[in-house]
Amino acid sequence: MRKIIYSLAFLLSISLYSQNSSIAFILNEKDLLPESVAHDPNTGAFYIGSTRKGTITKVDEKGKQSVFVRSGQFGQWMVIGIKVDPQRDELWFCSSGGGNLVGYSLKDDQEGRPAGIFKVDLNTGELIKKYTLEKPGEVHFFNDLVIDENGDVYASHMFSEHTIYKVDRDTDQLEPYAKSDLIRYPNGLDISDDRNSLFVAHSDGIAKISLETGETTSLNIASDIKLTGRESADGLYFYQNSLIAIQPDLSQVARYRLSMPQNAVMEGEVLELKHLAMDHPTTGVIVGDMFYYIANAQFEKVNEDGSLAPEISAPTILKIDLK
Questions:
Q1: Residue 143: in which H helix or E strand, if any?
Q2: Which end of the chain is more exposed for a tag (fewer CB within 10 A), N or C?
Q3: What does the pLDDT read at residue 83?
Q4: What residues does 300 pair with on adjacent strands?
Q5: Secondary structure tally for the chain: helices H, strands E
Q6: Which residues make Cβ contacts (< 8 Å) with residue 68, sequence separation at least 6?
Q7: Which of 283, 220, 221, 288 is nearest to 253 (CA)?
Q8: CATH classification of the domain holding 239
Q9: Residue 4 confidence class, pLDDT cut points 50, 70, 90
């Protein structure tokens, strides 16, 4: 029998990585720099938003890829957070100005930065309505959004103000919903299964907003858990009294179990760490008990002049079983 000897360096290196995820699909366009992915349970299709081209790519249930929203089709900028409302056959997405977008030239300190939330008909691909903030000198950025069972939309907004906005289904208006000193640079957000609470990832941890009263509180986080600063979460998803978080700077997907009542993070479990396909993971979507997520947004491969590094790789969506 051949004897195989592993070096200590090799053993240490493989201990730092996990390969629990598998490839769900790979996109044909290498230069999308995708930030977000959504799923339509009615058709089985996935939708992936591009920060580089401002497009949305559709991958149908058979794996066929097509452009669902073209660059600049609705006056949008980078496509950031994206969600499907299956009850109403609508696709909602956040769009914000930024240097990843080809041809973007506005300067924050001069012209400001525009942002908006866009609602698209899934059946026709036509724009239903857009809600934009485009005031000269103001710097806006919509990060992510979530849709409740009534069709109300909550979106995280940062820079000129760190707050949660809401598009009320009845009034059809975009308005500030919850602003608190407890929330800084809000990012991913999701609603609890009981529909009582909105959880928001931000640079200082995770906040909980009561959907009944609007009161904002900070979750107590166990001392051995890192969820702030560079370890803070981008995508955040509620699953069986826990929060699934993507932490880009750690190249990590983790599950954080909540206390009862849901006012503290009690323990964490790393689901995926430094998968070989990872290069700045960002956001995902839960489909049943499977979690699909963007493995390689590759934001760090945008040069100062806006060009891309030559070693850019094809966008990869990974999946992992949450059971």
A1: strand 142-147
A2: N
A3: 98
A4: none
A5: 1, 25
A6: 47, 55, 56, 57, 58, 91, 125
A7: 283
A8: 2.130.10.10
A9: very low
pTM beyond 0.90, yes or no: yes
Q: How far apart (Å, rounded) are the C-alpha atoms in residues 135 and 258? A: 40
In a domain, 233, yes or no: yes
Query: What total number of domains does the chain contain?
Result: 1
Residues 274 and 252: their CA atoms lie apart, in Å, by 6
Answer yes or no: is 260 within a domain: yes
Is the peptide bond prior to 86 cis by the omega test (within 30 degrees of 0)? no
3-class DSSP state for residue 320? strand
Cβ–Cβ under 8 Å, residues 143 and 158: yes
Domain of residue 195 covers 18-321
174-179 contacts at long range (C-beta below 8 A, 24 or more positions apart): 174/117, 174/131, 174/133, 177/214, 178/209, 178/214, 178/216
CA distance 92 to 38: 10
Q: b or e along 152-164 (b: 16 or more beta carbons within 10 Å of the residue's beta carbon)?
A: bbbbbbbbbebbb
- Residue 305: per-residue pLDDT: 83
- What is the rounded distance in angstroms from the CA atom of residue 192 to the CA atom of residue 258? 11
Is 1 contained in some domain?
no
pLDDT in tens, 196-234: 999 999 999 999 999 999 999 999 999 999 999 999 999
SS3 297: coil
Element containing residue 13 per DSSP (H, E): helix 8-15
Do residues 161 and 128 touch, judged by C-beta distance below 8 A?
no
Q: Kindly state whether residue 10 falls inside one of the protein's structural domains.
A: no
